[in-house]
Amino acid sequence: MSNDTFLKACRREPVSHTPVWLMRQAGRYMKEYRDLKEKHTFLEMCRTPELACEVTLQPIKAFDLDAAIIFADILLPLEGMGINLEFAKDMGPVISNPVRSAKDIEDIRIIEPEEDVPYLLDAIKMVQGELNGKVPLIGFSGAPFTLASYIIEGGGSRNYVHAKGLMYREPKLWHILMDKITEIIKRYLAAQIKAGVQAVQIFDSWVGCLGPDEYKEFVLPYTKRVIDSVTDVPVINFSTNTSSYLDTIRAAGGDVISVDWRIPLDKAWSTIGYDVGIQGNIDPVVLFSSIPEIRKRAKEIIERAGGRPGHIFNLGHGIIVETPVDHVRALIDCVHEFTQTTTEVK
User: Fold this and answer.
1) Which residues of the chain register pLDDT less than 70?
2) Degrees, nearest 5: CA angle 188-141-95
3) 205-243 pLDDT per residue, tens
4) Angular region, 342: left φ>0, alpha ψ -120 to 50, beta rest
5) Which residues contact 286 (CB under 8 A, 6 or more apart)?
6) What's phi and psi for 20, nearest 5 deg?
7) Which of 35, 152, 264, 343 could join 163 via S-S bond, C-beta 3.0 to 4.6 A?
């Protein structure tokens, strides 16, 4: 592989520069993506391997990134589970048959990825052929809590009344549901790895709505089972709004823990321990400031990493739609500039 700095950083090995990739790096902030989106729906793009491959490669062609991430969505397994999903205009994902009863949970089907998401696996193989060893390809899934919350709430949520209500009111049902979802995610990730991804990220974007005790009781065992099931490639454990209990997040596992901007990177790393890598952690909104400000804040984060092997530079969450493309390029380039030939900033 011509650029394996990302994989080396996942293993906490010395690198020639700090690797950088960006969550949602393939997306609506790029004109190339918007042009395709005028002709196809989001799900059409996910379910058409040629289109998913094209979108995955758009940022790799535009920027000097150190990893690609397959264009997909954490909700793609839902159809095979027997859950009706659509992406409504300006509303995001909408589930018409949310899971809220014992019967609903019983009816969830354990997916067979080769039958239920063959388009994703074909896209992975297609992307790997196009990358031809240029950079690694990352696969991903939702974490058990975030996926459970989506299917219980029926879409996005502010207070997670239905999901947390089930968790508190009927804990036995909650654990039955989480058992099923855990098995689904394990199969989903295993199929992506078999298809050719070289690392995976577990997205627990919603788990920050819980406190540490709830996380330990209702979430941690299931996230840990998913992560422990991955043995052949590095795993990135991503969550947001969890800076007050990162040690507990770390207990769920992962070769790399991804942190958001609500905690300084050096404090986060000392909390999770230096025996794992760390990913992050610039605020995506910083990309709306000036380029000098972007460079300043990127350098501060790199300095907090202290030249220690295992840092992967990323945002604390995904790129925002209106982000200026030139600012994305400036961030990527300055990370490489500040860390070239050594992980210490000069």
Assistant:
1) 90-91, 341-346
2) 95
3) 999 999 999 999 999 999 999 999 999 999 999 999 999
4) beta
5) 293, 294, 297
6) -140, 135
7) 152
> What's the CA gap between 292 and 161, in Å, rounded?
42
State how far the Cα of 235 lies from the Cα of 195, in Å rounded to an integer.
16
Read out DSSP for 59-76? Answer: HHHHS--S-EE-S--TTT
Q: 15-54 pLDDT, tens per residue?
A: 999 999 999 999 999 999 999 999 999 999 999 999 999 9
Q: What contacts 101, CB < 8 A, 6 or more positions away?
A: none
Rg (the chain; Cα; Å):
19
Q: What are the tens digits of pLDDT across the range 271-288?
A: 999 999 999 999 999 999
Phi, psi of 201 (to 5 degrees): -120, 135
| Whole-structure pTM value | 0.96
Largest pairwise CA distance in the chain = 61
pLDDT at 341: 66
> Could you give all domains of the chain from N- to C-terminal order, each with its CATH number?
18-280 (3.20.20.210)
311, 5, 314: which is closest to 136 by C-alpha?
Answer: 5
What sign results for the dihedral spanned by CA atoms 149, 150, 153, 156?
A: positive
